[in-house]
Write a structure and sequence with these properties.
The chain is 29% helix and 26% strand. It has 14 helices and 22 strands. A six-stranded parallel β-sheet has the order 3-2-1-4-5-6, with helices on both faces. GO terms for molecular function: potassium ion transmembrane transporter activity.
């Protein structure tokens, strides 16, 4: 597959790294030689120094016979124009990063498809969705719903109160049990567990279950004492914060702390129906946090553009008694540090956006792909075709590759966990976890 990535910025270089892992034919395109050199430093890819809106440059990159053209520069007008030109030249699929929520409406997306843009990516909206999903369950680090919650994946940090530590998983997760442990992050190692593995103190465990058993999972992991989130304090009033507040559940009250006075005025106009109180101040100021009720707040979300500031603010909030903290960490180098400090939920917009774009390179019918940064693992929702290899035998007889496990499936709208005796049918939505594996190798099971 030939892929052209226009924009050697954070998302573009992250995508190039992901696609290089799959040994794809990648060209990174940018009008800055300096940015391209930084991208080339640790990637074995071809680069072209040209504007993505240059017809000559697009022809030189081979847009006329590319399978996937991705425009992820900081300027949405450049991205839209580049995709229209690339499609007109012959690109099969095009993706444009945007920063206008209006363009994500169904009618607008249909219009953009007609003029040559296959898909639009709005990272701030994706990040806001992840933040709100996480806030709904204060005791969960990461949550992922399949088919509106028919299946639910939850990443949970295990503490001393967990009832199921140090027991072989074969005694906990049998065919008739209401959950499976599909992955474990233990210090710096990721484990796709077997029956002899066990959960240990301070593991990040990824559970797959169905909606009705979420309270049971909460009980056995010892998280019933976590208060549900009603009051949220957000540091940083950028686009992600606006989107998160405007789509927040009705029962949550929010306060946004923003250092820039002019931005505070803008926020009062951008927020729907007075959904949040806007405060001009520094979210690291303990006196201000105390005055604004941090001790009666269940969640603290740090969304400034500075990773160090966000990490420090979350640590401060934790010391003041907040159980649920969320930090925006855009610098990949800081993610492992944030995890070691037990920050809580980490949001990285470029990884979220890259996951959504990544699925477009797969030939199988894939509804969703997510990269779990904390576990260094991928989770994807595949729909197998009639006669595909995955449908020919029971799961135990398929000889699935090492590093891959099937978490569950949705059939006729109903979520089901998968055991060795399960036979997968064409048309099922199958949730697959994999660690240190080529996703293209896995998709061959489904086509």
């Amino acid at each position: 597959m030939k892929i052209i990535i226009a924009g050697a910025y954070a998302i573009g270089t992250h995508l190039a790294r992901l696609f290089a892992r799959e040994h794809e034919n990648i060209i990174l395109m940018d009008d800055s030689e300096e940015r391209l050199e930084r991208g080339e430093a640790d990637l074995d890819i071809l680069t072209i120094n040209s504007s993505p809106t240059s017809v000559k440059g697009l022809k030189e990159a081979g847009a006329d016979h590319t399978d996937l053209f991705i425009a992820v520069t900081p300027d949405e007008n450049t991205n839209i124009t580049a995709c229209i030109l690339a499609k007109a030249l012959g690109a099969k699929k095009t993706v444009a990063k945007i920063d206008n929520a209006e363009y994500m409406e169904q009618e607008a997306q249909e219009f953009f498809r007609k003029i040559g843009i296959s898909s639009l990516i709005y990272p701030e909206m994706l990040a806001a969705n992840d933040i709100n999903t996480g806030l709904k369950m204060s005791w969960v680090r990461q949550r992922w719903d399949v088919h509106d919650g028919a299946l639910v994946m939850m990443g949970i940090k295990l503490r001393e109160t967990c009832e199921i530590l140090n027991q072989p998983l074969r005694t906990l997760c049998g065919p008739n049990d209401p959950y499976h442990v599909v992955a474990i992050k233990r210090m710096n190692d990721t484990i796709i567990p077997g029956g002899n593995d066990s959960l240990q103190l301070n593991d990040m465990a990824y559970f797959m279950t169905t909606r009705q058993y979420i309270p049971y999972i909460r009980q056995i992991v010892g998280k019933e004492h976590y208060a549900d989130v009603k009051n949220v304090m957000i540091m940083g009033g950028g686009a992600t914060a606006v989107r998160a507040v405007n789509t927040m559940p009705y029962y949550m009250d929010a306060k946004i702390i923003e250092t820039d006075e002019e931005r505070c005025e803008q926020l009062n106009n951008l927020l729907d129906n007075d959904k949040a109180l806007v405060i001009n101040g520094d979210g690291r100021d303990i006196a201000l946090l105390t005055e604004e009720g941090i001790r009666n707040t269940q969640a603290f979300v740090a969304l400034t553009g500075n990773a160090e500031t966000n990490i420090l603010a979350c640590l401060t909030a934790k010391r003041l008694g907040v159980r649920k903290t969320v930090a925006m960490v855009e610098n990949i180098d800081y993610i492992s540090m944030a995890e070691s400090l037990d920050i809580g939920t980490i949001i990285n917009k470029k990884a979220i956006a890259a996951s959504h774009i990544y699925q477009m390179m797969l030939d199988a019918n894939v509804c969703n792909v997510r990269f779990l940064m904390a576990a260094n693992a991928d989770v994807a929702e595949f729909i197998p075709k009639e006669g595909s290899r995955i449908t020919l035998k029971d799961v135990k007889d398929l000889g699935l590759p090492k590093g891959m496990t099937i978490g569950g499936l949705v059939r006729d709208g109903k979520g089901m966990l998968v055991s060795g005796n399960t036979r997968i049918n064409a048309g099922d939505s199958v949730v697959v976890f994999c660690h240190d594996m080529n996703m293209k190798k896995i998709e061959k099971l489904f086509i």
